[in-house]
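Worked example 2:
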Amino acid sequence: LSRKKKLKNGRLEDIWCDLVIDHLGRDRSVLLEEPFLGRHGFFNHTEHLASTSWIKLSYGCAYFFKRFSSNALTLEELSFLEEVDSSVSKTFKIPPLHLKKRVLDVLQKHRLVQPKIIKLFKSVRPKAIFMVCSYAGREIYIEAAQALSIPVIELQHGSITPYHVGYSFDRGSFKCLSPNYFLSFGRFWEETVKLPIESQNVMTMGFPHL
């Protein structure tokens, strides 16, 4: 969650999700809560909480166990990453990005954490999952939902442009791990970028907080 507003009672209001929870029903909603300032329990919109602290701990464990893991990439994939790394370094005159190491680290985290997220979703048994943001590492939740045939709905949380790498997929590009639905602030935003979501699944919700 992000962009929280402090209330008079000291708790925090989530300007993206609270109104959705009100609409669905507080007794029918489960909040997957990330620790905020190292603590939990700031939110009072639903008593049904599932902490993600253990997921962050699992990411830390992945660094320890990666030395015992086998290489998860083919020789062709490794060669491709080295070529991309070299090309970017020469084109922009920057030091190597070490893409091979970065990708292997991400894959190891994924291998350890993704089954745990699937187990969480099986326990909670949601009919749908609402996300505030679907990129920057959150794709692992989408993949877990896809494995269980749970629809994922993203709420627009800020401005999007044709230059936003998290949302703009024009000219035949695509993204496998995308939400099933996108609820936008308005038609302007729907027409601004080519989202990696079927057009009939992009819908206007507005920004209820405003």
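The chain has six helices and eight strands. Helices lie at 18-24, 53-65, 75-92, 99-124, 139-147, 187-192.
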